[in-house]
Amino acid sequence: MVINMYVDRSVAKYVVEALKNHKILFLLGARQVGKTTLIETILKEQTGDLLNMDIDLERARVMEAAHLEPSDAVRVLTQGELLVIDEAHRVPEIGRITKGWYDKRVPVKIILLGSSSATLVDIAAAELVGRNEKLWLTPLLFEEILRQQTWFMPGRPPQALQQAFAAQIQALLLQRLVFGSYPEAYLAADPRTYLENLVSDYLLKDIFTKSLVRSPEDVRRLLLELTLTLGEPISVMQLATRLKLSRQTIQRYLDLLEGIFVIFKLPAYSTDPQREITKQQKYYFWDTGVKNALQREWVVSSARSDIDVLWENWVIAEIMKLRYTYRRHEDLFFWRSRHDSNVELVVKQGSALHPFAVRFDPHAVGHSRSFAQMYGVATKTITPQNILEVLL
User: Fold this and answer.
1) For residue 20, is pLDDT > 50?
2) What is the mean pLDDT of residues 332-342?
3) Is the sign of the CA dihedral 256, 260, 262, 264 positive or negative?
4) Is the confidence at residue 115, as pLDDT, over 70?
5) Burial class of residue 365 (count of CB atoms within 10 Å of its CB; 0-12, 13-18, 19+)
6) What are the tens digits of pLDDT across the range 266-309?
7) Alpha-carbon dihedral 210, 216, 221, 223, rounded to 10 degrees
8) Predicted local distance difference test score (pLDDT) of residue 201
């Protein structure tokens, strides 16, 4: 059962703004994050049609229309101002087709939705250079969930909000650490069943149905291995050795999993290879609910044995989601010296560095002094007690 509720998405204002120009709009994001729901909501205020390329008949309509003159083609597909093509990566020729329509200045705004970013970005690079713009829809931001709470007070300073509603925020955080932030996982009465179905049936569909992997079981083994190495720098060769697969195979699977928004990587920040780790990376899940579904671990408690790495993954994913949603010009790294001094997150904005230690327990040992000595920037600590100051 899912509560009949629509969560306002922060990216919606950018989508509406993008409708004012003629460029082809790419809206990218994992399956089930709400791309179609967002566009359908926008379509209530616009005229247009949405075609789903997962449906054979609608895919055939697009392919048949592609043989017509561009103006006739779009008229066959929609009588409105918008033409939305969902799961656009299912049509390999979609870049060539929409390029022809765009270049003929058809009087329709074209929006391509896709859950396989690698495929659609390749299309943009090959066919639609200078003709497109991209937006990303992630699992729900914590700020979007906060806005749904009856006790939330818009405009109140984060610190004051954190102090006034400490118990409510703590409870909400624990729920999201375990069940993640996919819209249905947040709205569903039974998020556990939803997430187990998501992981088994939907999330990996794009790489399994296209026979992009020889062994789906090897991909699942890789994902389980990544749940065990959260927060630890690791190389592709180390993963290959542990799973007894070739380095090339592991790299390809990692790229595919990144391309469908299951995982993302944090590279190492370094300016001195003699003193700092440079070649390893950390892998995190875009959504901690997916991590827990893979492990079938559903305990909602601050006493979980993995609470520290779960918190680290959740915080860094949340900051990464903000970066994509608001199109921030920043890069994210981790930092580790060769003497094991560690900073979980380094945000680089231009030439400015912002290092963060990520700790679930606010009384735990804080941060590395080595980073401050090397770069002259003190590390701040992110805990559940100050998280709103970071995210709002």
Assistant:
1) yes
2) 94
3) positive
4) yes
5) exposed
6) 999 999 999 999 999 999 999 999 999 999 999 999 999 999 99
7) 30
8) 86
N residues, the chain = 392
Q: What is the largest CA-CA distance in the chain?
A: 67
Coil/strand/helix, residue 58: helix
Nearest alpha-carbon partner for 6 in 50, 29, 40: 40
Give the whole-angstrom CA distance, residue 63 versus residue 61. 6
How far is Cα 104 from Cα 72, in angstroms, rounded to an integer?
11
392 residue type, one letter: L
| C-alpha distances in Å from residue 124, one per residue of 98, 118, 129 | 10, 10, 6
Helix, strand, or coil here: 21?
coil
Q: Which residues pair with 135 in a beta bridge?
A: 27
Helix (H) or strand (E) holding 157, with range, is: none
Side chain identity, residue 60: A
Structure tokens, 317? 């994913």
For residue 210, the model assigns a pLDDT of: 65
Concatenate the DSSP letters of all residues of 317-350 into one string: HHHHHHHHHTT---EEEEEEBTT--EEEEEEEET
Residue 124's pLDDT is 73
Q: How far apart are the first and last CA of the chain?
A: 31
Q: Are 217 and 245 in contact (CB under 8 A)?
A: no
Return the pLDDT at 1: 36
User: Structural domains in the chain?
Assistant: 12-136 (3.40.50.300), 143-391 (no CATH)
For the cut 50, the answer to whether the pLDDT of residue 4 exceeds it is: no
pLDDT at 260: 92
The mean predicted confidence, pLDDT, of the chain is 94
User: Which pLDDT belongs to residue 366?
Assistant: 66
To 10 degrees, the CA torsion angle through 258, 253, 195, 86? 60
Residue closest to 248 by CA, chosen among 260, 238, 240: 240
Helices (H), 260-297: 288-295
CB 13 within 8 A of CB 20: no
Query: Is residue 138 within 8 Å of residue 29, measured between CB atoms?
Result: yes
Confidence at 211, pLDDT banded by 50, 70, 90: low
Per-residue pLDDT, averaged over 106-113, amounts to 96
